[in-house]
Amino acid sequence: MSTTAGSTDDSMDHLIISPSPSHPANHICALCRNFYTLGWVTGTGGGVSIKHGPHIFIAPSGVQKELMQPGDMFVMEHASRAYIRKPPVLKPSACTPLFLAAFDRGAGCCIHTHSQWAVLVTLLVERDALRQQGSAASMAEELLCFEIERIEQIKGIPKGQGKQGMLGYFDRLRVPIIPNTAHEEDLTQSLEAAMERYPDTYAVLVLRHGVYVWGDDVHKAKTQAESLDYIFRLAVEMRRLDLPWTDHNTN
Predict the structure, then answer these.
(1) What is the pTM for the complete model shown?
(2) Of 66, 147, 152, 184, which is the active-site residue?
(3) Quick one: pLDDT at residue 183?
(4) Mean pLDDT value across residues 49-53
(5) What's the distance, Cα to Cα, between the start and end of the chain in Å?
(6) Contact 72, 59 (CB under 8 A)
(7) Which residues pair with 75 in a beta bridge?
(8) Were 102 and a residue from 9, 130, 166, 214 both cysteine, which residue would form a disulfide, CB within 3.0 to 4.6 Å?
(9) Residue of 138, 182, 185, 1 whose CA lies nearest to 76
């Protein structure tokens, strides 16, 4: 049963009421409070979504993420894409189609942040591409990619869906970068194309915007988001010191 916009069916409130901290409605609130302290969801930006059984729990749009309560959660039925619980007044997250793209590929949690380090890394990669190709027009059709290797924290990233183990110190981490759009939901097609081109990735950067990170479950998604943000920050500082991210003679 789907609710109408701007209303909620009180009979579905049991979906978001639980004393357990690990319940998705509670967990999303706790994660967003933590992410706020990291500068990842400043000014109502960013979002978190968790798949729990047949249901998807989604933080609302346009709210101060550090102040969210379980009652603010939207709940969607994954199979039908229908909202079965909508809180009054609040708007569904514009990130929802992108979260669904991750869930359709087996993810259990998807995190979207506006991390400054993620944004800066995309700017550095964009600048490198412009210098190599000479103009924005010549690189318009090219999918940019952040690449780095021989950094210990790369071990916090899995090898890829269906593959055993984590990346190693000598492996090259690749995170595709898609162009930004005026509206969040318009990123969906580019994000899905990046997922197809880089099937082992667990993250997609958005140029001048932020990053989407997903994992098999909440714990893995959070670990990967933290590891990537560490790597992005390190990459920015490495560039400041004129240190290379990769050995161009390796793949």
Answers:
(1) 0.92
(2) 152
(3) 96
(4) 97
(5) 50
(6) yes
(7) 57, 85
(8) 214
(9) 1
CA atoms within 13 A on the CB side of 33: 10
H/E stretch holding 59 reads: none
DSSP secondary structure code for residue 223 in this structure? H
Q: Catalytic annotation on 152?
A: yes
Amino acid at 204: V
**Mean pLDDT, range 53-81, rounded to an integer:** 97
**45 near 210, Cβ under 8 Å?**
yes
Of the candidates 35, 44, 45, 39, the one whose C-alpha atom is nearest the C-alpha of residue 180 is 45
pLDDT at 148 over 80: yes
Cα distances (Å, whole numbers) of residue 221 to 50, 144, 234: 10, 23, 20
Tell me the two tokens of residue 25.
Answer: 């409605």
Residue 81, Ramachandran bin (φ over 0: left; ψ between -120 and 50: alpha; else beta): left
C-alpha to C-alpha distance for 70 and 206, rounded to whole angstroms: 28
Retrieve residue 132's tokens: 């190599």
Give mean pLDDT, residues 196-224. Answer: 98
Distance, CA of 221 to CA of 224 (rounded, Å): 5
Torsion of CA 198, 202, 207, 209, to 10 degrees: 160
